[in-house]
User: Fold this.
Amino acid sequence: MSADAGRDLPGLAKRALDAFAESASRRRDRDSLMDNAFTALFDLYRATSPAQRRSPGGQDFNAALAELLSSGNNPDRLGLYVVRSQTAALNGQHEAYRPACWRRSMLELLGEEFVPWRDFLRPGDLETVRSIDEALVEVAGSARPVDEEEVPAWVPESHWWWWEPARQRGEEAPERYDSGPLDAVGD
Assistant:
């Protein structure tokens, strides 16, 4: 990825790869390692366009990321991230709907914008992602409504789970605002 005026894309790409490399190599299971890696990847996503992510530099980044996602402790850590995302979704009616949406969106960004899930998630984890979606639909009707301020501006329309509670209640989808940095836990 090339550097644009005001943005250090190579630095952001290195930070993301370094975070996933640390997650792959550290022995202790620490949620913060995967959370840090997703935060770094999210920063890169926000700083790049789809064309930049598809560019030769973007493809080189994706190839390096794919290798890291499949190496060391990352398959287990990603599996744990998926399972914890499922738990958040299942608990969505108990104030965990927004964190479940954040986690599901991070998985979607990783798989849609960088490396396809089939290239690094284990079959059981792929099935669990489908279960997350089912749980989000199931609990959306009883979940606390997602307020306008809680749907960040960067969320693409394809991330339907953010609007599912409003859809099930027959309401208009909330407007989107930029909620700032990655904040998986709502106020």
About this structure: The mean pLDDT is 87.
